[in-house]
Design goal:
Largest interface: A-B, 49 and 45 residues
Helix content of chain B: 10-25%
Number of helices of chain A: 6
Structural class of chain A: alpha/beta
Number of helices of chain B: 6
Oligomer: heterodimer
Helix content of chain A: 10-25%
Structural class of chain B: alpha/beta
Shape of chain A: globular
Radius of gyration of chain B: 19 Å
Shape of chain B: globular
Distance between the termini of chain B: 32 Å
Strand order of the largest sheet of chain A: 14-15-16-13-9-12-11-10-17
Strand content of chain B: 25-35%
Radius of gyration of chain A: 18 Å
Strand content of chain A: 35-45%
Strand order of the largest sheet of chain B: 14-15-16-13-9-12-11-10-17
Order of helices and strands of chain B: EHEEEEHEEEEHEEEEHEEEEHH
Number of strands of chain A: 17
């Protein structure tokens, strides 16, 4: 019952061929469907039809993102809640939005981001058999993360989006950076008992700071950095550690300018966990614990 | 809604001082409370009162496994479900057991005492909630934690004569979801791995005597931490059963070892993240070796036969 985890992101790219080549060969995603202006992809350990959808557009950035719900009835439940709060809700039948896609509802966050809740996406299986499977496939290309993990949005009013996610959609706050003026500079929220499924930082409405893939450990982050460097991918931040989430990370850009992250670590969160607070003075360490200073490019570049 | 995760494991030990020394100094748990016959311990990142209770008894054994439920009303719902199945349920009030509020207890078809609890006294983790550092120092040293210092307890594996029947109870009555199963040549379940927390397993059942504990396991963050754990175990002269190695089932990386009184412990990392609609994985008898130990491809007798 309820919202389970991040399902997919729909990313704008001005060069569909180049982006597809990058996400399949460098990131190591698997293409599951192709249309003239859209390419549907998934990570190797995901069972669902797609988790990254590339869409041809004159600009880069985030078109929409979706969270998976446990039961079809959850769609009606949240549609009612959203409508009661005066939010316009669009319904999509199974397959209506694209190949393999499930039944969904779509709406806008107060920050203008287009969000979707989806159920019943086509299950295409991971790359392993269901009988006597080896622990990993041996023929993977590129970084090959097992799954999509979280996304990070920018918004003019972080607290408004945070309240919306908490009160209407039942997300739980795990960490926040508080400005000296008492307003939230950034927030991290979860539904899946991880450190975060979604995060919001002060910036333009409708903006995407990054979306992140899960890798299994710190050793995989080093391999990911090797793969990025080998392929000439622009690495923004070397393997390092977050204060927030305790996770370890690597940031880099796809060839169209969308920021990607490889992420690992973090902690288990009970639903009644008390949120962690970072003060503005410690914001550098909150974001990058080893550097301890606020990186201006990291804060100002988004798509 | 429903069962959230493993809360604590209660085992008996024949030497409380020796066991306490091992669990605090080699494992690196925090001693929370000591009574005349029991010691309560937690891992550093756990906020609840305890995840392990050691009690003195003339023989080593397994008292109970306790799981935490998400909401207060889950207790009465699951109490009714267990009663409907036909098992007597005991309700414990606040103050009946150390560090926790109301709970229910019952004996499962596999002969294990199981507890479900919602309210647990909160002690906080080793880190503050304001500007916390993202790690604890280990091992040892000034301000550091001794021993392996796992952040939390992870899962428990128990033995049962009728794995199929007992699995059905855990799934149909308590809402566990089977992620993987091991079948014998006749298609009967000889091992099942079940989850509530979107991990490969919170509870597993393998063939063996009713009421037995095969092991309980601590979570470690990664394979590097597993290597450190092996170093610490060897340095302290702990009897290692198997590992470091890899499981076929769960894909996890692991070491099995014994506490000084003979209860098997595991350190575990890795795995995957199953959704509730995860298509179950099946292992056949001819692949049982790889299912359990992927690198060795065969089971050792001790692993199969020793339990408490």
């Amino acid at each position: 019952m309820g919202i389970l985890r991040l399902s997919h992101v729909e990313i704008r790219v001005p060069d569909l061929e180049l982006a597809t080549a990058y996400y399949s060969e460098v990131v190591g995603l698997i293409e599951t469907a192709r249309e003239p202006e859209r390419v549907f992809m998934k990570c190797w350990d995901e069972h669902q039809h797609h988790s990254v959808v590339l869409v041809y557009a004159p600009t880069h950035g985030l078109n929409s993102f979706g969270f998976k719900v446990t039961d079809a009835a959850d769609l009606d439940h949240y549609a009612r809640r959203l409508q009661a709060a005066g939010v316009e809700v669009q319904r999509l039948e199974k397959g209506e939005w694209g190949p393999g896609h499930g039944q969904a509802i779509r709406f806008d966050l107060p920050s203008g981001h287009r969000m979707e809740l989806v159920h019943g996406m086509e299950q295409v299986g991971n790359l392993l058999p269901r009988t006597n499977p080896p622990p990993r496939p041996m023929n993977l290309t590129g970084i090959a993360p097992p799954r999509l993990d979280h996304l990070f949005l920018t918004a003019e009013e972080v607290d408004t989006v945070t309240v919306f996610l908490r009160d209407i959609l039942d997300f739980r706050l795990t960490e926040q950076v508080m400005g000296d003026d008492g307003f939230q500079i950034a927030t991290w929220l979860e539904v899946s008992h991880t450190s975060h499924d979604i995060a919001v930082i002060t910036g333009s409405n409708r903006g995407l700071h990054h979306f992140a893939f899960w890798v299994d450990d710190w050793n995989d982050l080093r391999s990911a950095a090797d793969a990025c460097a080998y392929h000439g991918v622009h690495i923004e931040t070397n393997p390092t550690r977050h204060g927030v989430s305790r996770g370890q990370c690597l940031y880099f850009f796809d060839p169209c300018g969308n920021r990607n992250e490889m992420f690992t670590g973090g902690y288990w969160v009970d639903p009644d966990a008390e949120p962690i607070t970072w003060t503005e003075a410690e914001m550098g360490r909150a974001l990058f614990y080893y550097d301890g200073v606020v990186n201006q490019k990291f804060l100002t570049v988004h798509t | 809604m429903g069962i959230l995760r493993l809360s604590h494991v209660d085992v008996t030990v024949t030497d409380l001082d020796l066991a306490s020394a091992y669990y605090t100094e080699v494992i690196g748990m925090v001693l929370v409370e000591r009574t005349a016959d029991s010691v309560y311990l937690k891992c550093w990142d756990e906020t609840d009162h305890h995840s392990l209770r050691l009690s003195y008894a003339p023989r080593v054994g397994f008292d109970l496994m306790s799981f935490k439920v998400e909401r207060d009303d889950d207790l009465s719902e699951l109490e009714n479900a267990v009663a409907r199945y036909g098992l007597p349920v005991q309700r414990l009030s606040q103050g009946d057991s150390v560090g926790q509020g109301e709970s229910i207890r019952f004996e499962t078809p596999s002969g294990h005492t199981m507890e479900l609890v919602h309210e647990v006294r909160k002690l906080g983790s080793a880190l503050p909630r304001l500007n916390p550092q993202p790690f604890v120092y280990r091992p040892g040293g000034e301000g550091g934690l001794p021993g392996i210092a796992p952040p939390r307890m992870d899962h428990v594996l128990v033995t049962a004569e009728e794995v199929g029947e007992s699995t059905q109870f855990y799934t149909d009555v308590l809402g566990f979801r089977v992620t993987e199963q091991l079948l014998d040549g006749h298609g009967h379940q000889v091992g099942t791995w079940m989850e509530r927390s979107h991990s490969p397993h919170d509870l597993a059942v393998v063939s063996g005597p009713n009421g037995g504990l095969h092991h309980f396991a601590y979570w470690l963050d990664d394979w590097d931490h597993v290597r450190d754990a092996a170093d610490i175990l060897a340095y302290n002269g702990i009897s290692v059963d198997v590992g470091p190695t890899r499981h076929g089932i769960t894909r996890g990386s692991t070491i099995y070892f014994f506490d000084p009184l003979g209860t098997r412990n595991e350190v575990f990392t890795g795995g995957y993240r199953p959704d509730p609609d995860f298509p179950m994985i099946t292992w056949t008898e001819d692949n049982a070796g790889r299912a359990i130990f992927y690198y060795e491809g065969e089971l050792n007798d001790r692993f199969m036969k020793v339990h408490t």
